[in-house]
Every structure is written in C-alpha cells, then in structure tokens.
Amino acid sequence: MAHLSPGSIQVKVGDHVTVGQPIAKVGNSGNTSEPHLHIQAQTLGTGIGDVATMDIPTVLHTLHTYPLVFTDVVLTRRDRESRPVAADPRRGDTVRPAS
Hints:
The chain is mainly β.
C-alpha cells in the first residue's frame, strides 16, 4: 500500500484481517490533490535475492497477483458509475462507499 497516513497502520505482518476491519487510514502523500491509495496483493517471486544478479524476467513469471474485491461500493470506470455486487477495480477506476 502506498500513501497511507503516517502512524495509522493498525495491523502487522502475520495478522489475519476480517472483512470490514480497519487496517490504516488513507493519507495524501505525493503530488496529489486528494487522499488516495495504491494497493496490490501479490506473492514474492522465487529467486529473490541480490537485485544486481537476479534474473528479472524469471522472477516476474513466478509472481502471482491476487484480485482485491470490494463490496457495497460505487465503481466509476470510464466516467460510468455502477454498483456491482463485487468490484475488482482496475487502473483508473475509483470506488467509494455506496452508503
């Protein structure tokens, strides 16, 4: 995650989180006009070691990225709003609480 509010993280590595559990507050770091969040969930690639000697293409092929699904939201994609049962946002999408 990137752009979290400093000191707001409420979980640590190894914690199990549940749906709806707060994990941190979104901040406004970087060159932006409003708070936002960059988030991605993926495995570590195999062969991670010395960055100077690793075979980047091989490492990239061993990564697995997981979808992040949001419920009870309004999804905006290409200037069109929808209220899907489950939203898996893509680059450029925005989500906001439906209520």
